[in-house]
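Revision sheet: structure tokens.
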Amino acid sequence: MNYELEGIKAAFIDLDGTLYLGNNPIVGVNDFLDRLTKRGIKKYYLSNNSSRSKKDYITKLANFQIEVLESEILLSTDDLLGWLKSNDYSNTFTVGTKSMCEMLEENGINTNSNNPEIIVLGYDTEINYEKLTKSSIFLHNGVPLVASHPDTVCPSPEGGLPDVGAFLALFEATTGAKPVHICGKPNPEMLNHKIREIGLEPNQVAMIGDRLYTDMEMANRVGCLSVLVLSGEATEDDANNSPQKIDVMVDSVDNLIQSESTQ
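Predicted:
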């Protein structure tokens, strides 16, 4: 297994469950990121968690002494925005946090339409019954549904918390509606456009994350090195029983790049 990430020029790193759990950084995360820098490996940060904006993530990571630029953060909301624009949707009713709605509004998307073209479902940590009621009525009336990502749970130190996949199950049970599209990981284009932008090939890139059905599946679909960490959602048993190809499996990012050599 390529624990030293030999031949890798850029690392795409998941956030929740990989660099931190809730408000607790994974032990050794800063040393790992320093080792990437010393090796000259570019760092990009990915999350399907659409409850936060890029500015929110910059602030959160700064609390862990991790400094990042907006251009280094890739969110499922970015993928969602691209999908909405490519399909000419601008009037939505969005079930999402204030931060998510602000990010959509800044890009020309109405998030609180009384006559929406589509329902947008994000990881809404501010969800309430009014939002569920309005969305259900719209869905009963045939308005289509799009989701920011497929994650069923959001990892936390206390265990998995309800995420978009759980909300999708609620809406399907209530209205029978299924999403016409689900954005975010494992959509390979979420990585491919950045890989092309920085002029690399997939075999020069690593995807590091804690989920089999998003992080590892996306790595496999892109054709890059798949690195599973067991610090978040997936367990070793999950990995052993998964159809996803896992090139490297470690307890946490702290187990990666331990030698003193440089590329």
